[in-house]
Write a structure and sequence with these properties.
With 208 residues, the protein is an alpha/beta fold. It contains six helices and six strands. The N and C termini lie far apart (141 Å).
């Protein structure tokens, strides 16, 4: 008899196959049922939807920068709703519900007739050529400061005042600033004579 001919007396017991990836169970740490236990059944990540909501230049659902369109008002409406000599600005137009809170631009067109002299004041109110002519004929005034693109003709636009450039102040370091403050605040030190004692004695004797 040789070593390779030896056989065990007891019957061989097949080892239980355990799921791969888990510790001891047969489900590899996935559980029994549900979307997460299936192969390829991972749920959609939440971050992906959040990231896709942010617009990009060449990306997901990006239509470019949207410029705000002006709210159009005709002169005929202003003739009905406002009195002669009344001041019109964006605040009053919002109060009378001609424009919404988020609207910031207004354009007045020359459709209809204007007989009242109205004063337009404030900012971001634009006019068409026909509207400008009718307002001036009726004796109205335009005192508008255009924050956005101006529609007034070049001759009527307010001239920008040229500011003289002030000389730039040199920036001082903290250490230099602290030294200057100490000089101003510290009391003046009395001058101390550094002459030797023998010279002082000679002077005193000469005086006597």
């Amino acid at each position: 008899m040789q070593f390779h001919e030896l056989k065990p007396i007891h019957s061989l017991k097949k080892r239980k196959r355990v799921g791969r990836g888990g510790k001891k169970g047969t489900y590899s740490g996935r559980g029994i049922k549900g979307q997460k236990s299936r192969a390829g059944g991972t749920p959609r990540p939440v971050l992906r939807d959040i990231i896709k909501k942010f617009p990009k230049k060449r990306g997901y659902k990006f239509a470019g920068v949207k410029r705000q369109k002006p709210v159009v008002l005709n002169i005929s409406i202003l003739e009905e709703k406002f009195k002669a000599g009344e001041i019109i600005d964006i605040v009053k137009l919002r109060a009378k519900k001609f424009i919404r809170k988020k609207d910031r631009l207004v354009k007045i067109l020359g459709d209809g007739e204007l007989k009242k002299s109205l004063i337009f004041r404030g900012y971001n109110i634009n006019f068409s050529k026909s509207a400008l002519e009718k307002i001036k004929k009726a004796g109205g005034k335009i005192e508008i400061k255009q924050k956005l693109r101006s529609t007034l003709p070049k001759a009527e636009r307010p001239k920008k005042s040229k500011k003289t450039a002030e000389p730039e102040k040199k920036k001082m370091s903290k250490s230099v600033k602290n030294k200057e403050i100490e000089k101003k605040t510290s009391p003046k030190k009395e001058k101390i004579d550094k002459k030797p004692k023998d010279v002082k004695l000679k002077k005193i004797l000469k005086e006597k």
